[in-house]
Amino acid sequence: RGRFPQKDLESLFPGMSADFTSENFSAAWYLIENHSTTSFDQLKTAVVNLKKQANKKNEGSLAYVKGGLSTFFEAQDALSAIHQKLEADGTEKVEGSMTQKLENVLNRASNTADTLFQEVLGRKDKADSTRNALNVLQRFKFLFNLPLNIERNIQKGDYDVVINDYEKAKSLFGKTEVQVFKKYYAEVETRIEALRELLLDKLLETPSTLHDQKRYIRYLSDLHAPGDPAWQCIGAQHQWILQLMHNCKESYVKEQKGKHAFLFPMLDLDSDVRPSPIGHLSQTASLKRGSSFQSGRDDAWRYKAPQQVVFVEKLTKLVVSQLPNFWKLWVSYVNGSLFSETAEKSGQMERSKKNARQRQNDFKKMIQEVMHSLVKLIRGALLPFSLREGELRQYGGWEMKSELSGQWLTHVIQTVRLSSESLTALEIPNDMLQIIQDLILDLRVRCIIVTLQHTAEDIKRLAEKEDWVVDNEGLTSLPSQFEQCIIHSLQSLKTVLDCKPGEASVFQQQKTQEDVCQLSIGIMQGFIDCLEQLSTKPDGDIDTSHLSVDVSSPDLFGSIHEESSLSSEQRLLIALSNCRYLERHTFLNIAEHFEKHGFQGVDKITQVSMESLKELDQRLFEMYIEFKADPIVGSLEPGIYAGYFDWKDCLIPTGVRNYLKEALVNIIAVHAEVFTISKDLVPRVMSRVVEAVSEELSRLMQCVSSFSKNGALQ
């Protein structure tokens, strides 16, 4: 219309404006496609020529018909005459229609043919029917054989084949209206439903590996199982872990109550039970530590483990072996890796991710419940006083004949620490594991308290180990044994006092500081009491061990090791010598060790201990002075007035009287005794003895009213 004027187009295609038919449209489109560059006049000329050719063709056909028209009429007349003749002859010679006889003959022939070939034709129809049925069976044998194939593949465990066949059948016959197909497809659905139930049972069956769980979840997803099988599996695993933990506790409690003298597995406490970080973290694929707690055993040092220790180790191994798969199952559930590509295409994975986001709080509660159960079961076995009465009935039940030693508590702490490291390696949020850190802190505090209590008991028994063998400094082995006992105790607490990543200091609480300070003071006071007991108990209670003196020590008056036993005065001197060494060396060394290990209130411990030691030293010193000075002082007055001596009436003096000689000899004997044990004590002791004798002499002289010439000279 844009190229040619309207009137020109109408001249080419009459009636175009009124009724533009498909033929006109086709002709117009032909012109546009093939003659877009031809001028309108040329096209008009071509149309005229085409019309002329069409008219010539019509005129040729019409001329042909006109030329043979007489022949057609003659043939028509002949046929009509024949028909009339036949009609007339038939009516006269044959009753009824002339074809009646022919019809009867044909019917008899047909009946005869039916009689002859009915059986053959029947077999042919049956063969055709059978052939058609076989064709149908052959064509759709996949569907007809599918129920049996599903059963066989299920028995063989070829679930992938079953799922693929089911998907194929569903796409082909899921919406069929053919009754036979519907019937067989219903059989397929029945078996698939049974397979869903079977897979769900296998999925919820425990124990089960993470690989199998993922596989069954993927199968159920591909089979479009109702509900959320993955979440059902997570819930079943959660309950199973809790049940395992409680069963573990019940079995060990029954075993403890059933056997009074049970031989526990051998565990070495002196070996390093911690595996190397690389070796430990390399196991995070399954995080089953196996015997990682008992690596590197030294056969020379083995102890029989208490039932609670064995239980805690078994419980932590159980949790660390099961929880990783549980956590990984959740992670796979969240990121959708549980599902196959089919699930991704169908959008099921997105639905799963959405469900996982909605259930994050529920899963967090599951993890927290497992952590709470783990912690409370350990508390019930080791720290029952930290549980409420209701919790104690559920998580306790142990026979607590005696509390665990510090060594075993240290071993338990290392065990729990390893468990915490393993769980942290799973990237479980720290807030879920905080309860384990709280447990470790309480165990560390309890270990320190128990170790110090046992140390105090050991210190009290040091009196039994006193051999009274004196070295050249006047000391026995007791101060050294005391210092070594405390150092060993603090060294055993080193791993407990050291803070691992994420742990708090054991001394962060004021109550813990005060308790540890009081126990430390009690240890020091216990040793002071031990010294007092040794130095003051009766002779009959003293060990008959002989006192020996170092050969290098000067012995002016003979060594006292020849004596059969120690006198009370000698024990006092040895105790005084030990006290002097404790004040100047031992207590200061112990204070340094306390500070080195991070103890709080060391100044208070040292101050109180020093004051108590000085009080003991002063009491023992006064006792010794009383033992040695009083007899000398008491012999002066009787010696002076022996033989009714009178200062007013006495003979001319010929020398010092015997009482004074005896006093000097006794003082020299005291000097010798003190010097033999500890020459450092000589000035302190001798000054007091001489002072006491001098004071008594002064008093006695002041009591004399008058002297004669000889008396004054005497």
UniProtKB/TrEMBL annotation:
GO biological process: exocytosis; Golgi to plasma membrane transport; protein transport
Domain spans labelled Exocyst complex component EXOC2/Sec5 N-terminal: 6-714
UniProt keyword terms in alphabetical order: Exocytosis, Protein transport, Transport
InterPro entries reported in the protein's UniProt record: EXOC2/Sec5, EXOC2/Sec5_N_dom
Transmembrane residue ranges: none
A Pfam family hit: Sec5
An example Gene Ontology CC term for this record: exocyst
KW Cell inner membrane (keyword) present: no
Role played: Component of the exocyst complex involved in the docking of exocytic vesicles with fusion sites on the plasma membrane.
PANTHER family: EXOCYST COMPLEX COMPONENT 2, EXOCYST COMPLEX COMPONENT SEC5
Protein name: Exocyst complex component 2
Organism listed in the record: Cettia cetti
